[in-house]
Amino acid sequence: GQQLNQSPQSMFIQEGEDVSMNCTSSSIFNTWLWYKQDPGEGPVLLIALYKAGELTSNGRLTAQFGITRKDSFLNISASIPSDVGIYFCAGQEGAQKLVFGQGTRLTINP
Amino acid sequence: EAQVTQNPRYLITVTGKKLTVTCSQNMNHEYMSWYRQDPGLGLRQIYYSMNVEVTDKGDVPEGYKVSRKEKRNFPLILESPSPNQTSLYFCASSLSGSNYGYTFGSGTRLTVV
């Protein structure tokens, strides 16, 4: 099955730094989603994007739906310890099927 | 509280011993799905269901079965588990027509020895 290419696979940053991660696909998606997974829990939806070029914010998080509809990025500004976790991008592929990226593991040094 | 509940959270079993992982949602969602999560591979869809008695294969259905006899429940069945099915499993549900993706359960960590 199809899989999205998400990068970087891991990030080690200092508290207060900004973070950027992205996701690319060989196929077009009509919806892009960004999830966060805390240790021992299931993924939780952070941001949903529905239109090419759309830029959406959720607090310190900002995500964009690429113009080509084949990519998306997520930025986190002024990182804090609770931002630690694994971030997943997902493209929605009809009938509520989600195709996920491999994940970006974020570690923050205080 | 709106949620997706999976049981058990942890399970260790032996090769070939049939097992069922239960999943229940209290949000009256039409869509339900099972994913497995493996390091470096993200989440891959096993099976999904669009409503009662309507199920279809995802990307990695081999070795799994599902049923959807009631709207709220979507159990995952491993008839003869093998070690390559050792993984973290997530059940998820979604409202029909929604563009908000899925709401996920807390996961079931399965080890097959």
Question: What does the model show?
Answer:
The complex is a heterodimer of chains A (110) and B (113). Helices cover 0% and strands 54% of the residues of chain A. By secondary structure, chain A is mainly beta. In chain A, a hairpin with a 6-residue loop joins strand 4 and strand 5 (44-49). The termini of chain A are far apart. In chain B, the strands form 2 sheets. In chain B, strands 2, 4, 5, 6, 9, 10 and 11 form a 7-stranded mixed beta sheet that branches. The model of chain B has no long low-confidence stretch (mean pLDDT 94). In chain B, strand 9 (87-94) and strand 10 form a beta hairpin. With 113 residues, chain B is mainly beta.
Draw up the topology in text:
The complex is a heterodimer of chains A (110) and B (113).
Chain A: E1 5-7, E2 10-14, E3 19-24, E4 31-37, E5 44-49, E6 55-58, E7 61-65, E8 71-76, E9 85-92, E10 98-100, E11 104-109
Parallel strand pairs in A: 2-11
Antiparallel strand pairs in A: 1-3, 3-8, 4-5, 4-9, 6-7, 7-8, 9-10, 9-11
Chain B: E1 4-7, E2 10-13, E3 19-25, E4 31-38, E5 42-51, E6 54-57, E7 65-66, E8 76-78, E9 87-94, E10 103-104, E11 108-112
Parallel strand pairs in B: 2-11
Antiparallel strand pairs in B: 1-3, 3-8, 4-5, 4-9, 5-6, 7-8, 9-10, 9-11
What's this entry about, in short?
The complex is a heterodimer of chains A (110) and B (113). Chain A has 110 residues and is mainly β.
What are the main properties of this structure?
heterodimer, A: 110 residues, mainly beta, 6-stranded mixed β-sheet, 5-stranded antiparallel β-sheet, 11 strands, 0% helix, B: 113 residues, 4-stranded antiparallel β-sheet
- Rounded mean pLDDT score of chain A: 92
Spell the H/E element sequence of chain B.
Answer: EEEEEEEEEEE
Helix/strand-derived category of chain B reads mainly beta
For this structure, the quaternary state is heterodimer
Alpha-beta classification of chain A: mainly beta
So how many helices of chain B? Answer: 0
What would the principal axes of the Cα set say about the shape of chain A?
Answer: globular
